[in-house]
Amino acid sequence: MRGTMSRIRNTVLAAMSLSAMTLAVCAAPANAAPKVPPKKLSFHVLYNFTGNGTGAVPFAGVIRDASGNLYGTTTTGGTTGVGIVFKLASDGTETVLHTFTDGSDGGIPLAGLVEDAKGNLYGTTYSGGDPTCNCGVVFEVNAAGEESVLHTFKGGDDGATPYDGLILDKHGNLYGTTTEGGGACNCGMAFELTPKGKLSVLHAFAGGTDGSFPSAGLFLEKGNLYGASYQGGGACNCGTIFKIDSTGNESILYVFTGNGSDGAYPQASLIADKQGNFYGTTKFGGTANGGTVYKLAPDNTETILHSFTGGSDGASAYAGLVADKKGNLYGTTLGGGAADVGVVFKLTPQGAESVLYSFKDTKDGANPYGGVILDKKDDLYGTASAGGLNGYGTVFEIR
């Protein structure tokens, strides 16, 4: 996996050329054009990253506070070139809350942030931390912009290289995954981190049918954790959906087959509805191998809601989804669309897709790795990892 995940690091540093790299598999003929959304939408670039001290190449999406401020991370940029934590005010003013050094404070934050009731921000870095391992950290940035390292990964049983973000329960416990470490397989693990900084390994992935390399975050419901592993599961090695119960026992809910009617390589976290259905995306698979949006029912029956074709409807669904009150799903793709650099899409509960926005690269952004969030008015906010006026990515809004 070290070789696999080292390619991720190289991908970060070469993010502006992602469309050619990730979408070569999607050269199938496009289906009929997606439906035109009924509302007239407006797209706005809220911020263009400059590639210097203000950050560059945001891989994750943003979060929003009650005052309308947005918070996020960039994987590169900052004064040391290994990423920042930023705040973007509603008037478009950016404040750098922390600049990573790739030392003990961490470096290359691939994941986004989670906020507690006091305004403290929590996240992970893919590298930095222990100088002999360079395996990443869990960090906190308080309301004053001061960073504290809550845990330094050391590899082996302790885990290494967290790829996605954290979730926070009502007691202040943090939950996440690492893509490596955890046991003899070095296939990653799921962990809990208490407010006092005690880390517990909830499950060490063993590869094979157990799943391996969980690069998605976790979903917490009734004391159980749910997530996806990027590989493992079956003969295809195309990933799984798993459950870890309150006692730490893992069960596999679904194994991706990678055939034309199924997805492959889930990279994103899950969301759930009130009926207990899970929703997520796969990076590849589907009828044109351009990725899918899927639904997993409580009886573990999977339904593909949409297979991306690589045409106007998008290609390679990398990020997770959000849902509105009517059950419509919203997300992004890395490629496809008018300029083959990604789209923002809406999917009805019945699976009808509308492209809300198709990126054009130079002015508005390209290759949105991160997903989108919804505010109370159903306005959308997100990031593009490349493009924009300076070529280093953007923060955008769709009203």
Descriptive overview:
There is one protein chain. 4% of the residues lie in helices and 33% in strands. It is mostly beta strands. The strands form 8 sheets. Strands 1-30-29-28 form a 4-stranded antiparallel β-sheet, with no helix packed on it. Strand 16 (240-244) and strand 17 form a beta hairpin. It is globular and about 50 Å long.
Which regions are unreliable across 5 or more consecutive residues at pLDDT < 50? 1-9, 11-32
Which percent range fits the helix content?
Answer: under 10%
Q: Mind summarizing the main beta sheet?
A: 4 strands, antiparallel
* Strands, count: 30
What is the 3D form? globular
Output the number of helix runs. 2
Determine the N-to-C terminus distance. 41 Å
Please compute the radius of gyration using only Cα atoms. 19 Å
Structural class: mainly beta
- Quote the average pLDDT: 91
Portion of residues in beta strands equals 25-35%
Gist of the model:
With 399 residues, this protein is mainly β. Helix content is 4%, strand content 33%. The longest helix is centred in the first third of the chain and has 12 residues, at 2-13.
